[in-house]
Amino acid sequence: MVSHKYLSLLPAIIVSALGYFVDLYDLLLFSVVRTTSLADLGVGKDNILNVGLNLLNWMLIGMMSGGIVWGILGDKKGRLSVLFGSILIYSVANFLNGYAISVDQYRVLRFVSGFGLAGELGAGVTLISELMKPQKRGYGIMLVTAVGMFGAAFAAYIGQHYDWRFAYKLGGAMGSVLLFLRISVKESSVFKNAMAKEVTRGNFLNLITHKNHAFKFAKLTILGLPIFFVIGILVTSTLEFAKEFGMQPLPATGIAVMVTYISISIGDILCTVVSQALRSRKKAVLIFLLVTLFGILFYLFYPAASPFGYYIKCAVLGIGVGYLSILVTFVAENFGTNYRATATIAAPNFIRGLLPIAISPVFLFLKPSLGLINSAAVVGVISVIIPVITLLFLEERFGIHLDWTDSF
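The chain above was modelled as a monomer; its predicted structure follows.
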């Protein structure tokens, strides 16, 4: 006999996992079709890197904005309202992206798509965290992120074998299908219990101005610094780095993205297993940060003689930054039910937003004087060292019960 709790949990995991699949499909599709789509829109070869980074930055800024809005709605209206709204917006934006005829239109649609995408992962993680037993919740969220990561691999395949306009339309169509699947998902009883209490819910201003909570949120966000340095700088700029390495023939960006994200899925599974075995979020994240540091140095300074060797580098990087599922679980475990969605939805999008706000500007500032490889090395090493230090000032939260509220 299958328990009622299991029946309520399974649809939530399936919809969250498939939602994250579509989320990463869209997020990484741009990396795969960047060169072909911008060339098709008339951008010159010498300007594709700068225009591409600009469009990526606008998408990530959209995600930061969406992270705030969806987080507030998640605590005020419920986790399911976010799943519905975010899926609807990024599906429409994705589909319309297939009809873009200028860089300006591309930029606007990337921003809107990013805004929509912002709610998916955090809402799913919040919901599953509240539905699962404390000692096992890491496994549920691992399934979401592990399945979701294959969306990037699918984006790599579609982006390489089909026209970029079709690829975006397909993403919009997949998102639309999720709107029907979401009907079977039930709200968590933990959230329903919190709704009956007279407490402030989803006030983002409180979250970032209250000293203790603001510092905690900032520290958790900083832990993700290396993730989008690896994705947004190293892997997205595969062709530029490969040319700098003097590689011939050049590796394919699509394959590099696919290998990296499949490896991130493997890393997510391994990091969850390590966390469960050590009964610690902090120790697991520390181990994978050190693997990431090794991966960055390996990528930049160990010569690859062939595309296959380059893809091996990408695999090492992917495994290293495969601690995302544990990181978002860690965020959910640090905040009460009345602020859990606000923090958990905002955090991964603020992590993504660190790329246009901090990582890309520093990298582009250093590049003219230090060169492509050395500037990436400086930014990459710093992006790991800061989270390692920050980790020392966070409290362990493994196995904590989540039926509680924050007071301000």
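The two ends are 44 Å apart (CA to CA).
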